[in-house]
Write a structure and sequence with these properties.
- There is one protein chain.
- With 265 residues, the chain is α/β, with parallel strands linked by helices.
- The protein has one domain: 3-Layer(aba) Sandwich (Rossmann fold).
- It has 11 helices and 7 strands.
- The N and C termini lie far apart (38 Å).
- 40% of the residues are buried.
């Protein structure tokens, strides 16, 4: 399964959610890959920390290869590197993504990532894709190639207004390019249960029939320490309440639907 984590609004926790869900998948023994399409490279920094180097294979190299006519037999896996965590690999971001975007658009390479995901799915059980805070070439490429979309949401009115546009954009891509694409759910992030506004906004979203996922992820200063140490929560503090909420969210996302009991005659 390839899961895109996307929101056009910045600062909603895309990279944090991407890396922590991926780390949980890996900690459960699943072959897991993170693809970082955001030129800011927050997911890459989060997972690599001081082990990151400028000359390492990266997603910019993959897209640059897509523009070339090289006969060199490279595949998508050639742009993947290991992280310090067992079974967790990364296709890292780099600054060249901004420069490559116009060339990729003009050369109509929008389906190249989908082809790569089909190949990578043979080597990985779970693929998580972190996206820029914009519906640009890279985000569209990810949505066209993925099987699911996860939407981080922080509880304010600006996020709510952006959410409706985002859902319309995802449905348009589903209709035009990728009938397998589904919104797996809205992840409520940095939730403060004692504040009236967040609870009211979430309740209204649920009343509208939107797929708000449980549990809500609580606000915690511990996540900043996780970022600073480049250790996802499941490795940094597995018993913390935020870690437990992330694990529950992960297991809810990937729970197999229960079979309905057959009626006895």
């Amino acid at each position: 399964m390839a899961l895109v984590v996307f929101n056009q609004k910045g600062g909603v926790g895309k990279s944090t959610i991407t890396c922590n869900l991926a780390a949980i998948s890996a900690s459960q023994g699943l072959r897991t890959l993170v693809i970082d399409l955001d030129p800011q490279g927050n997911s890459s920094s989060y997972l690599l920390g001081e082990t990151a180097t400028e000359d390492q294979p990266n997603v910019g190299g993959f897209f640059d290869f897509c523009l070339s006519f090289s006969f060199k037999p490279l595949t998508a896996t050639d742009f993947v590197i290991p992280t310090p965590f067992d079974k967790l690999h990364l296709m890292a971001a780099n600054a060249e993504l901004n420069e490559l975007q116009t060339k990729l658009e003009s050369r109509q390479k929008i389906y190249k990532l989908r082809e790569a995901l089909q190949q990578l799915s043979e080597d990985y059980d779970r693929i998580y894709i972190d996206t820029p805070p914009a519906l640009n070439f890279y985000t569209r490429s990810a949505l066209i190639g993925a099987t699911g979309c996860l939407i981080p949401f922080d509880c304010d009115e600006f996020s709510r207004k952006a959410l409706y546009t985002l859902l319309d954009n995802v449905q348009e891509i589903k209709a035009d390019h990728n009938p397998e694409l589904d919104v797996k759910g809205i992840v409520v992030n940095q939730f403060q249960p004692r504040a009236n506004l967040p609870q009211r906004i979430v309740d209204e979203l649920i009343a509208e029939g939107l797929p708000v996922l449980q549990p809500y992820l609580p606000s915690s200063v511990r996540i900043r320490e996780s970022h600073e140490q480049s250790r996802p929560m499941v490795y940094l503090d597995p018993k913390h309440r935020l870690t437990q909420a992330l694990v529950e969210l992960h297991d809810t996302l990937f729970a197999k639907p229960k079979k309905k009991a057959s009626k006895s005659r």
